[in-house]
Amino acid sequence: MTTLRPMDTETPTPARVDALREQMIAELRELKAIRTEAVENAVRAVPRHLFMPEVSLEKAYASEYSLTTVRNEQGVSLSSVSASRIQAFMLEQADIRPGMRVLEVGSGGYNAALIAELVGESGEVITIDIDPVVIDRARSLLPAAGYGHVQALVVDGEEGEPQHAPYDRIVVTVEAADLAPAWVDQLAENGRIVVPLRLRGLSWSVALQREQDHLVARDFEVCGFVPMRGAGARDMELVILHDGEGEEVGLRLDGEQVDAGQLREALSKPRTEAWSGVTLGLGLPYDDLELWLVSTLPEFALLAATRAARDRGVVASWSRRGVATLLDSSSGSFAYLTMRPTSPERTLFEFGAIAHGPEAAKVADRLIAEIQAWGRDHQGQQPELRARPAEAPGEASFRFTISWPDKR
Ligand SMILES: C[S@@+](CC[C@H](N)C(=O)[O-])C[C@H]1O[C@@H](n2cnc3c(N)ncnc32)[C@H](O)[C@@H]1O
């Protein structure tokens, strides 16, 4: 495991810190990550650079910069101080008020200090992490920045922290493939859990509240977090479909079963293309399309590829995280989401499907039909996520369903 060393630099002037912090706040407002005075004031109050002594002031106050603080032997990030954009929008989702008792699962220091500002002197903040290195760091940085009253404890977040429960808010800052039953048990009656929830491989930060016997979320924000370790860890599987001189292509699977040999064979054969007529302006987000596909495709995976694999024509688009893919395991076929410019100016892009395998045309048509249903009836809509305790004893504790408003 590797950790960081503090930078050996001059003490920054307060004026320089203030200028950079105001610039970050303006950016976060522009990005709609900050939406309320309360979160803005918290971001203004906490000296973020004191929680990132290893990097320059400019990096500490860059709205999209996250600092990895612990890596494993393979270089994979195990802990980080998250980007302020993500922290701000999760705190907006959490709607933390003065006097509340808040549990943060996954620590770092800075976000706990923001929460301490939001709850004020009458509130209470407990931050927990599975990693003693992270808690040691938080225990030295929090008091130095004036937040010595925040309690930082080494605990596997899967257990929550029963000693201080019930919590008005539980803010989970590590990717979860399920809800830990302890979080729900330790939540106050009108409490709220904000969590980066991984649904079929893709993560959304959702704000869950109790409604009768289940929990409901109506606010989804795309996000990326380090995955949960410990008792709640649910690792994704990577099945390699093509490999050679930097041209890796693989399927990232979140519980789906596949015949890797069949799919490898399929990718080695010519592709079938189909186009939807559904278009999107350059650079615009389409995470609601991905959420639509996550909630409607019967078998789902993410096709991840390197740029070299795209450049050499093995795949049509490249992404390390992976693009939404419809699997048809009965025939060993699959179709993945792609885009093409509609004109040489490249201002508008059309969604399409690239398919391989014996039933390529059928699978491509199915993916196109879902893209068209989204474009026609659901683009820009927010669905509802319901989390119900699983009925059958199995690996997952909760069953998630996503429902969309009626057709427009
Ligand atoms: C993205 S970091 C948290 C960022 C932090 N909240 C901040 O202020 O920026 C995610 C943290 O979750 C921790 N973690 C992973 N699995 C955990 C678990 N089961 N329980 C508690 N913490 C866990 C990691 O050690 C890591 O420090």
Question: What does this entry look like structurally?
Answer:
With 408 residues, this protein is of the alpha+beta class. It has 2 domains: 14-232, 3-Layer(aba) Sandwich (Rossmann fold); 237-378. 27% of the residues lie in helices and 31% in strands. It contains 11 helices and 19 strands. It has helices at residues 14-30, 37-45, 57-60, 84-94, 110-119, 132-144, 181-185, 260-267, 287-296, 307-311, 360-378; strands at 67-71, 77-81, 101-105, 124-129, 151-154, 167-172, 187-199, 202-211, 214-217, 220-222, 237-242, 249-253, 272-281, 300-305, 319-328, 333-341, 348-356, 384-389, 398-403. The strands form 3 sheets. Strands 3, 4, 5, 6, 7, 8, 9, 10, 18 and 19 form a 10-stranded mixed sheet that branches. A 7-stranded antiparallel sheet has the order 11-12-14-15-16-17-13, sandwiched between helices. A hairpin with a 2-residue loop joins β8 (202-211) and β9. α2 (37-45) crosses α5 (110-119) and α9 crosses α11 (360-378). The protein is globular. It starts with 13 loop residues before the first helix and ends in a 5-residue tail after the last strand. The model has no long low-confidence stretch (mean pLDDT 94). The protein binds S-adenosylmethionine.
